């Protein structure tokens, strides 16, 4: 109970801090502060940084005809400016004001696309450039817009007359000064790091004194050292954060080089750690494991980033700072979550999935976590974050970590994780012909009085994944039969996998064109239940799950095994 009370105290401290931060932000946007954002207008853009994000000329055509497919939602403007519309979808609005969609117009390479881009920037300046308020001026959105305007300044300024050229640079300068003022008070996490990235881009791309570049470089280095872990993961433990930040950091490194400036060692070191970390989270088909806010993977996005990875050999197997383990051999990959919850202030996307794992064989996924529907209805997010949506054990249908669903909190912080495991010791069990680990967590200890321990071993050239789930009280005392010891161990099956059960209680998992695996358990008869896979490319899909249900006071340990019985051929480990 003391741990819960401590988490609650920490939560309300964050609420108070965020309330004060937003109050200061409103003050800084008011007339008393706004004069600070005025000043000298840059004469020109020295360099347009590259953009590694995928571009689609077809989207530029859609935008030309007034259809805006942003953040998973299509909005038709009916001939009006999109900045005049009151669209209730917050994600769509943030994407609109972030201007990353300018890359599609740049990819088109036509004068018509340049004119359309210029018209939309003109609309934004007229409607939002002089009023620092709302979603358009949230610091995280402002950082994305500053980066996008710099990266795609060539298309925006193509054929521009002098009055627009000056208005564009003047607005950009105001946004940069505002962002510089707000960056130090932004909440911890990706948004603050991206703000530092945007300010470094600005100091390199626009005429600025050497002191401005030194300050931007110093602040960027401090933020990278704070947020990027020694194993290359992000403090939020989100695989997607590694991908998104690399898409900004790699062009920034190139921009330093293009301007004949030495990038800070912290930037070089962060990229050198993050690229192997991204490989760590990849399955054989190139998709990222569905942990902590990860949804469907757009494979071309991964491939674009990985072209910059010069490291050789197989991915790392152990990410102790991020809290993940990887087992791989014979074309089989197992990725498991063995980490503590992230800090409360960066836990808005964290899941209660401790000791969950995913298994892919060749290019096919067999055992998965439900993942999230990235652009879906927000009311489904709590379901996707719950322990039951992961391939791990739940006790009494309760998640191993708790989330805040208070309306007062969500208005300021979203839905942070406020409780969960406090200790997750993990030990590798690797030896010749074996990749394995054993880990345990205490997420259920305070409420139900016992621990969950999981051991996984991948052997026989990847043909056997042997698992052991053990439930024990501290000190190895017997678990009480008190009606609060009901355990469910779940294995979520990918919706593309066929699942059949024979007369001997063996379950066969078969891919249409791929391997076949057989699931068996020595102590408990496995059952098959309905499930849902949130991370489908086209949205949630119906799926199934293998379930082992029992009372921990009667069966304290279960041994299960997944055996590959038909090997369809596989690519080399990447």
From TrEMBL:
Domain of life: Bacteria
Entry protein name: Heparinase II/III family protein
Keyword Signal: yes
Keyword Glycoprotein carried by entry: no
Keyword terms of this UniProt record: Lyase, Periplasm, Signal
Domain Heparinase II/III-like C-terminal: start-end pairs: 313-561
Taxonomic source organism: Mesorhizobium montanum
UniProt-listed Pfam families: Hepar_II_III_C
Subcellular location: Periplasm
């Amino acid at each position: 109970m003391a741990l819960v009370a401590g988490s609650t105290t920490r939560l309300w401290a964050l609420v108070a801090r965020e309330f004060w931060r937003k109050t200061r932000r409103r003050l800084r946007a008011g007339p008393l502060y706004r004069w600070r954002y005025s000043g000298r207008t840059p004469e020109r853009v020295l360099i347009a940084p590259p953009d590694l994000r995928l571009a689609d000329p077809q989207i530029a055509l859609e935008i030309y005809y007034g259809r805006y497919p942003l953040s998973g939602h299509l909005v038709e403007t009916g001939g009006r400016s999109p900045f005049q519309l009151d669209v209730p979808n917050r994600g769509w609005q943030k994407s609109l004001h972030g201007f990353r969609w300018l890359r599609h117009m740049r990819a088109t390479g036509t004068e018509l696309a340049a004119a359309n881009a210029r018209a939309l920037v003109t609309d934004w300046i007229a409607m939002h450039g002089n009023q620092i308020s709302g979603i358009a001026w949230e610091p995280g959105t402002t950082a994305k817009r500053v980066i996008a305007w710099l990266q795609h300044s060539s298309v925006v300024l193509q054929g521009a007359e002098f009055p627009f050229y000056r208005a564009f640079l003047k607005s950009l300068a105001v946004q940069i000064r505002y962002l510089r003022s707000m960056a130090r008070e932004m909440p911890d996490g990706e948004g603050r790091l991206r703000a530092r990235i945007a300010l470094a881009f600005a100091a390199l791309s626009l005429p600025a004194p050497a002191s401005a570049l030194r300050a931007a470089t110093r602040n960027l280095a401090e933020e990278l050292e704070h947020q990027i872990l020694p194993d290359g993961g992000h403090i939020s433990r989100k695989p997607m954060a590694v991908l998104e930040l690399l898409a900004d950091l790699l062009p920034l490194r190139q921009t330093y080089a293009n301007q004949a400036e030495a990038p800070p060692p912290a930037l070089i070191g962060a990229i050198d750690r993050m690229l192997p970390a991204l490989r760590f989270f990849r399955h054989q088909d190139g998709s990222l494991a569905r942990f902590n806010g990860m949804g469907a993977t757009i494979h071309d996005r991964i491939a674009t980033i990985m072209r910059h990875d010069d490291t050789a050999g197989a991915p790392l197997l152990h990410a102790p700072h991020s809290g993940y383990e990887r087992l791989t051999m014979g074309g089989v990959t197992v990725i498991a979550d063995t980490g503590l919850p992230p800090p409360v202030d960066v836990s808005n996307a964290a899941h209660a999935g401790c000791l969950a794992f995913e298994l892919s064989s060749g290019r096919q996924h067999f055992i998965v976590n439900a993942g999230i529907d990235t652009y879906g209805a927000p009311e489904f997010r709590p379901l996707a974050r719950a322990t039951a949506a992961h391939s791990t054990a739940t006790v009494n249908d309760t998640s191993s970590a708790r989330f805040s669903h208070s309306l007062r909190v969500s208005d300021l912080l979203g839905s942070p994780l406020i409780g969960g495991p406090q200790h997750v010791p993990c030990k590798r069990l690797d030896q010749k012909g074996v990749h394995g680990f054993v880990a345990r967590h205490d997420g259920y200890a305070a409420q139900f009085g016992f621990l969950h321990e999981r051991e996984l071993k991948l052997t026989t050239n990847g043909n056997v994944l042997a698992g052991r789930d053990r439930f024990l009280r501290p000190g190895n005392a017997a678990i009480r039969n008190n009606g609060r010891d009901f355990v469910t161990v779940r294995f979520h099956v990918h919706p593309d996998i066929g699942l059949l059960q024979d007369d001997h209680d063996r379950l066969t998992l078969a891919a249409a064109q791929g391997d076949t695996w057989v699931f068996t358990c020595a102590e408990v008869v496995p059952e098959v239940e309905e499930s849902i896979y949130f991370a489908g490319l086209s949205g949630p899909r119906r799926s199934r799950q293998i379930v082992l249900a029992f009372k921990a006071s009667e069966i304290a340990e279960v041994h299960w095994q997944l055996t590959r019985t038909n090997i369809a051929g596989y690519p080399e480990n990447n």
